[in-house]
Amino acid sequence: MKSKIINGLLQILGIMIVGAIIGYAVGKIVGDSLSRVDKPNIILLLITGVIAFILHVIIHEAGHLVFGLLSGYKFISFRVFDFKIIKDENRKFKIRYERLAGTGGQCLMRAPEYIEGKFKYKLYLLGGVTFNLVFSIVFWLILPSYYTLLFALIGFALAFLNLIPMGFNDGMTFYHASKDETTRFVLYLQLEYVYYQSIGKNLLIEKPEIVEKINSLEITNTNYLTDALEFIKLEGLEYFFEFDSLYNETRKLYIERDDLLPVYKIELMALLVKLISLVNPEDELLEELMKDKTLLARFKQKNPQTKNILATYEWGVKLDDEKAMILIEEARKLKNKAPNLYVQNLEMKYCDYLENKILN
């Protein structure tokens, strides 16, 4: 805990130092140009700031897309805030809704076939930052004004916030991937896993040999990329509805890994609520979980995963079959708000499973 606080303070200090340097440099560079333009309208400046931020999120993800394509990657999905464009199994584009805490956007692509020592990840990971910087500079050079200066400053800020390794941003992913070959292979696996989910399939089922490769990995540098393997394994159990084993493994991971990223931890807690309600409603851990404010906020999301968790809780713990059935129907109506086709199919299958348990 102490080390996390120290690391957090160091990150904040680093951002402040970089911000001060950028501010000083910008002042020196643009001072003369600004002296020759009209003073800005404050309201327009505020509106410009909001629009510039949204544009830079789009520009950032477009950078990942362009540099990914140049590296041989293939498009999977493009998300800005909660709106996501995906290419389905029929290669048609669809719009889905997905909320991922801690991110403004995300561009996911399928990596080219993995070759040890030659995995192409650098351009893909740094493409977003590069686009933010290039567009910021070009806009300022073409039309210098207070408004384009604000656009440029927001672009530089977003670029450096993604470049300085912290949380699970591009810089941190690049840092971990650059350290060892195992982490690069894990990054490849994650992208491949997401691709298979986008077409409604599970990588571990389609390519069983991957399971053996995962189990044989010698992970020396544990990080959020390697942690994702734990969730991939859990989803393998969930695919076959092996809920007893899934409950035991999920509970074990929750108890043993207090250092998981918050975004991982909250999803693990949500899964545990469903599994405890389904397998062991007397588990004392459930009361602790249901008091967590972050988890309760997570349960306000409107998607089939959340509705099925709540339906299971109402049936298994509250013994309210009627409310559980209502939530199951809500899950079915929200199927298009699942993050991908695989999750959509899995949740609809679970709706049938839980409904059958309630009626029989």
From TrEMBL:
Keyword terms: Membrane, Transmembrane, Transmembrane helix
Transmembrane feature ranges: 12-30, 42-59, 123-143, 149-168
UniProt-recorded name of the protein: M50 family metallopeptidase
Source species: Gemella haemolysans
